[in-house]
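ok so i was messing around last nite and threw this chain in just to see what happens. nothing serious, just curious
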Amino acid sequence: MAALTSTNTSAPLLAIEQIASGYGRIEILHGISAEILPGEIVVFVGPNGAGKTTLLNTISGLCNIRAGHIRFKEENIAGLRPDKIVARGISHCPEGRRIFQRLTVEENLIASYVAGRPRTFSEMVAEVYRLFPVLGERCKSHASRFSGGQQQMLAVARALMAQPDLLLLDEPSLGLAPRLVTQILEIILSVAALGMSIVLVEQNVDAALEISDYAYVIENGSCTLEGPSGKLRADERLREAYLPNS
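result:
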């Protein structure tokens, strides 16, 4: 696997500006800033509980922002309802898959399709079946009968049915066998090849740095390190903390 290195020098597709957010009275993120350029894969890594999932939830409107701005295509989307954010072109594939277990593959895709975007439902279904052939082969099967890896494929396929310009992926390889992890990461590269920008939160730090263009390290709700993924992969501080056996 290799990152699709971005040479895009245009304005950021997404600009996160000094955001603070959390749940109830607890603040999780403390003044994080980041940029995602068109066509980039950007990864956020860090220890469990650092705030990576909270960051994705804040971008997609699932977590209230307390300070700062989130600009998508130069519009401040902070405070918008999740459905309004999806309609603008951001789709979120959360940790834990969260597919509709009692529905078929086809029914899951129908439930996730967002009308009003450029492509028809039939066109999007054909696209996700091309990316995930097993879903096409078993389109009438209930999701509950799928393996963990197949359910993760369905979760990503559901997110793609919204036709996003920016795809948020939270721990897509969590709990999968190594062979399936490689397959999922290769699919992420295939999705990026379509011209989509991707924000990835991933526990497999080495693989995430290999396929991404740029990386941020989050610790205790703050960004402690950032840079091109290849450069961070060689950084001794990061290697000691997250790649101790490499």
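not much to say yet. The chain has one domain: 14-242.
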